[in-house]
Amino acid sequence: MAGKVNDKKKGRRTTIYRLTGVEHLRNALRSKYLDRNGFEVADVAVGERSALLLTGAMTKDTADWCATVTALTGRAVAIAGATPAGVLVLRPSPEATDDPTVAYALTYGMGFQLLEPSRLDNLFGQRMAIRTAEPDNLRSLTVTTMDERSRVSRASIPQGEGLLGFGIGDIGEAVSRIVAIANLPDLSRADGMPIQLRGADALNVPIGLTPDEVTADIDMLENNLAVPPPESLKILEQLTAIKNPEVRKTLDARLSTALDEGEGTIGLAWPHERVNENGTPDSWLPRNLGPRRPNTVREGQPEWNEITEALGTYPPGQRLDRLDRASIQLFRDAEGQEPISQAIPLRRWVGFQCELDGSTYALYDGAWYQIHHDYADNVNRRTEAIFAKAVDDVEFPTWGPDDHEAAYNMKLAVAVGGVCLDRELITTDLHRRGIEACDVYLHDGTLIHVKRTDRSTAASHLLAQALVSADALCNDEQARQKLRERIIARDGDPSRLGIKPTRVILAMHRSDRPALTAGELFTFTKVNLVRQASSLESRGVQVRIVSIAGDRDMLEP
């Protein structure tokens, strides 16, 4: 039922969290607040249902900005402040769920700070929104690109639109926040009318004000989670939570190996939906991250190289345990006085994917998920199509047994009449650290990137390098002009470069095995390749992959 929205004022819009593994209601709350001065915990009842109430205020005798104002004006300013917080925890009825450890938390003010992070069902709001939203009346989507870049973007269409209007539907896109007009006819204060719903890790909806209404609303939400998603929105739910403890244990072992060896598709995964509603962070505080990373506030935002450096101070086999012991908290100010997040466990900052028994698994927001087969099949099919496209006009010389990348690039440039630009970094206002435009430039506007890919991680690096280069040259005139200057300085002809390259060739060589195939790439790498090719070819830039033969290959019958 589209059209008129009913947000009845007599129903209070409430942020609701779902928690799992809560054997006792107190397990849903952080112990520091259960015993904290100024906070009161009470066993209560909501109708006939047992519940737990925690209320209090986070107080400061003097606001942090007072000292600054005093120093600037000479006038003594001292203003106290208090931030109220409350949370009510209760369970759904046994008729709504067969899991006795499920609990729901109704939060008020800064109540989200009081919840135990390890118990949160982090996709609760998203799954509810997918099952109840009107498919053609989505208002806002936050999309995480599940590849090495971990790019997160939010699109809003106030009047509502279907998935095509948001440009959603490509591979590697996981939706983590949905704002939509939804049908929840059994919601106590909806009266059968559509309501606006916001869903991410939590759900924000107007619920009833009486005990019977609230308990009925909680049961209704739990019942809706068991309903399959509609076909038109199924693409938004590409991940399935892994609940089998043995499978999780095996996947953790894979993650431990990746942390110890520094290999695999692993990196920083920004937990946007835990902080995005509260502002942009200017500092972060690592806790228990490592002996060389003391618990002091750091300006800026955390980087993956800082995480790996700290984890590297622990012996192999102990780094996985550190993911669960360490945490990162974000702050709005550079001094670290205004928190905009909880202390988020380090595990939730790590993104990782691996293959196990023929299926693809991903660590996302601290939990394991299996990628649906139709999604994986689509990735594989499109990757194989890219590999199948031939390059007939460029003859690549063989890779000699003593060749390294720099030597081969010189050989290639001579053989094809191109310009060798290996290790020639171009710096621009947008790329101050420099980018490598290509290894060899051909006079028809082709960029060739060369990589020895004995490991799949090397292929991933090649794709990432090519992506940054091609994107910069398509969008940054300063980068194109500097590339033209480099080409001319080496007696080349940049006239065909135009406003974008004509083609990008990813040339790979393996010294000890047959040519790299699409099936051997990590899922993250495939996603990156398909997204890159789709983006570039939509701009008229061809993407091709070439396998460079070695001397050993030429001798084989």
Structure description:
With 557 residues, the chain is of the alpha+beta class. The protein has 3 domains: 12-136 and 174-229, no CATH class; 245-371, no CATH class; 376-555, no CATH class. 27% of the residues lie in helices and 28% in strands. The chain has 14 helices and 26 strands. The protein has helices spanning 31-34, 66-73, 124-132, 163-166, 211-225, 245-261, 304-311, 319-325, 373-388, 405-416, 456-475, 477-489, 523-537, 551-555, and strands at residues 12-19, 39-46, 49-60, 81-90, 103-109, 133-145, 152-161, 173-182, 195-199, 203-207, 239-241, 265-268, 283-287, 298-299, 327-331, 344-345, 350-356, 359-364, 367-371, 419-420, 425-426, 435-436, 440-441, 446-452, 503-509, 542-547. Strands 2-3-4-5-1-10-9-8-6-7 form a 10-stranded antiparallel β-sheet. The chain has a 5-stranded antiparallel β-sheet with strand order 11-19-18-17-12, sandwiched between helices.
Principal-axes geometry comes out as globular
Share of helical residues: 25-40%
> How many extended strands?
26
How much of the sequence lies in strands comes to: 25-35%
Largest sheet: 10 strands, antiparallel
- Sequence stretches where pLDDT stays below 50 over 5 or more residues: 1-8, 275-279
Total number of domains: 3
| Average pLDDT number | 81
What is the CA-CA span between the terminal residues? 68 Å
Structural category = alpha+beta
Within the largest sheet, what's the order of strands?
2-3-4-5-1-10-9-8-6-7
Oligomer: single chain
- Work out the radius of gyration: 27 Å
Q: Count of DSSP helices?
A: 14
